[in-house]
Each structure stands twice: as C-alpha cells, then as structure tokens.
Design a protein that fits this description.
338 residues, alpha/beta, eight-stranded parallel barrel, four-stranded antiparallel β-sheet, elongated, binds phosphoenolpyruvate, binds manganese (II) ion
Length: 338
C-alpha cells in the first residue's frame, strides 16, 4: 500500500500516523518528496483499512498494491486447492464434477428416486434444499430437518455425497450430521456471523456469489471462512443482477479465469439460477466447462412443471444426462474428463 500525506502536514501528525501503522504490524518506509511525503507499507497489510486511512484529514491519496485477502490468495498458495467432499474431489486439473438434484427436497420417495436418476445420468453429487430462502414468506419454505434426513438417506442408498443450503448458524449441528457440503446461498454471502460459524467446522462449504456482489467482496467472504480455520471452500457463480430481463440473472463466466488467477479455490457454476430458464442451461453448462469450471450444479426434477420451486429452470433427468454426455466431450477438449 502506498500513502501520500498532504503538503505541510505537521511533523507531529506524521509521526503519530507512522506509529499507528506500525502498530498494525507493517513496516513503514518514508520517502520525502518536494511537495508530498510518500509512505510505502511493507508486510501484511490485510489489517490496514483503507477507509480508516482516508478518514485522516492529512492523507492525500491511498493506493492498494496487494489484494486485501491472504488465505484465498493464489500468490501465497500457488497450487490449486482440491476439496474432498466425502470422497468426491472438486478442483485440480482432472475431473469436472456434475452435481444434480431438485431445487427443494419434496419428500422421501422423490428424493431417493431423483438421486438414482442423477447418478445414472453421470452425476457425482446430489443437491437439494431443505431450508429455502424464498422471496415470499407465503411460498414453500422447505422441509427442514426432515428434508436433510432424506438427503442423508439418498446418500446411503446411492453413495452420492449431498449438498444443501444452511441459512442460519444455529443449524450447524444438523448439517454436520446429514450433509457433506454446506451451501451458503447468494442472499447470505455477506452474513458474516454465518461465515464465521462455518469457519469453525471442517465440513466443506459451497459459497455462492451474492446477487449484487463484486468478485473481491465474494473472495473476502471466502476469506472469512478460511480465516476462521476452514480452508475447504468452493466458490459458486450463480449469476448476478443486472438490467437484463431475458434471463433471471446474468451468468458471469468471466469469474472462472479471474478466480483461477486471483485464488487457488475451486469454482463451480450454477447455470440454473444463472439463467432461470431450462432452455439455456445446456449451452451455459458447456461454456462453463470450456472456460475451466471445476464443477456444475444443476437443478434436476422428475417433472419440472410440478416442482415446488424453480421448475422453469429445472432439467429433466434425461436432459441432465445429455448435458453430462456433451459436457464430457468439451471437458476432454480442455484436457479433463467428467
Ligand atoms: C438454490 O440453490 O436453490 C438457491 C436458492 O440458490 P441461490 O442462493 O443461488 O439463489
Ligand atoms: Mn433453486
């Protein structure tokens, strides 16, 4: 970080400024200019808050050189992180992991049946929401614990690890018991208490990008979980809110090469929420694999028109099988497999 102080800043102010920075554990190198005093900060600047620095009336300019995240930073961890989700490895160079399942868990029989179908289609993991973040309080809110138990049952039956969304910190014990990968939904990406709680578990976390969050804010959310001690974080792009209305969200596939460059964390793409339209899911899935995604999470339902949530963006098991089949060919072109 480079900071310049205004001309004629009293020396006593300069000294107290340097002291406060050194108190944050960084080395401060002063360069006397003719008009400005410039300070180069060396060391770990993650604790130096740019906004606090700017609040000092003697500060003229602040330029951040290093990213504000450390644990997630590729610079300090050059090799790809591979997250092991109950035996299924996400990340690295080899496999693209296909995750399928309904938006909401709707009952025991349907869950066991869809798990079999996802597996037969080439899926390696089962998704399903038991706690649903719905816009309307009158919409179906999910089966709760009962739904998680059906997921665990489906895992016993098929061997597929399961992923489900956790909305509040007090539910951690049941997620630790029934779920293999804990999803943080887009609406909770900056629920910092939830992130801190997930820092204390060893269960892997699927961290969705917030509806209107920048990539840096998203990486900082991952940093919260990692700083708490849980480094098993998988990033998930699910589209962001833009002015466009032909799609539910705008799926930002540029995050794949950007995250690969900035971080070492695996990246999974959700083309279902990313588009909101089952007709667009296959094309965006193939594009995501071509761009280097480590996995895809896709909504699959036996009968999308009868789904209790997100039917319009859900694939039938047959359509999911086709995405897996075509996806495998694209994966092979980019030196991977499914
Ligand atoms: C979901 O996965 O069903 C979901 C609600 O996702 P998001 O948080 O991305 O909207
Ligand atoms: Mn959904």
């Amino acid at each position: 970080m480079i900071i310049s102080l205004k001309k004629n800043t009293p020396e006593a102010e300069v000294q107290s400024f340097i002291k406060s920075l050194e108190g944050l554990g960084v080395e401060v190198n002063r360069i006397h200019g003719t008009d400005y005093d410039v300070f180069g900060l060396v060391g770990d600047t993650t604790r130096v808050d740019e906004k606090t620095i700017r609040a000092n009336p003697y500060v003229d300019e602040v330029t951040r050189i290093a990213a504000p995240y450390k644990k997630a930073n590729r610079l300090f961890h050059p090799q790809d992180t591979v997250v092991d989700v109950a035996g299924v490895k996400i990340g690295g160079k080899e496999k693209v992991v296909m995750i399928g399942g309904p938006c909401s868990i709707e009952g025991e029989e349907l869950t066991l049946d869809i798990a079999e179908k996802v597996k037969a289609a080439g899926g390696r993991m089962l998704r399903g929401g038991a706690y649903k973040p719905r816009t309307s309080p009158y919409a179906f809110q999910g089966l709760g614990t009962e739904g998680l138990k059906y997921m665990a049952e489906a895992r016993e039956k098929t061997g597929l690890p399961v992923v489900s969304e956790m909305m509040s910190a007090d539910k951690l014990p049941e997620f630790e018991e029934y779920v293999d990968l804990i999803q943080v939904g887009a609406r909770n990406m900056q629920n910092f208490d939830l992130l801190k709680t997930l820092g204390k578990t060893k269960k892997p976390v699927l961290l969705k990008r917030g509806l209107s969050n920048t990539i840096e804010e998203w990486i900082m959310a991952a940093e919260y979980i990692m700083a708490g001690g849980n480094e098993n974080v998988i990033m998930c792009e699910r589209g962001i809110r833009t002015f466009e209305r032909y799609t539910r969200n705008t799926l930002d596939l540029s995050v794949i090469p950007i995250l690969k460059n900035k971080t070492h964390l695996p990246i999974v793409i959700d083309p279902s929420h990313g588009t909101g339209d089952s007709k667009l899911v296959e094309a965006m899935s193939l594009a995501a694999i071509a761009a280097g995604a480590d996995g895809l999470i896709i909504e699959v339902h036996q009968c999308p028109k009868k789904a209790w949530s997100d039917g319009a963006q859900s694939l039938t098991p047959e359509a999911f099988a086709q995405v897996v089949e075509k996806g495998r060919k694209i994966a092979q072109v980019v030196g991977r497999d499914i």
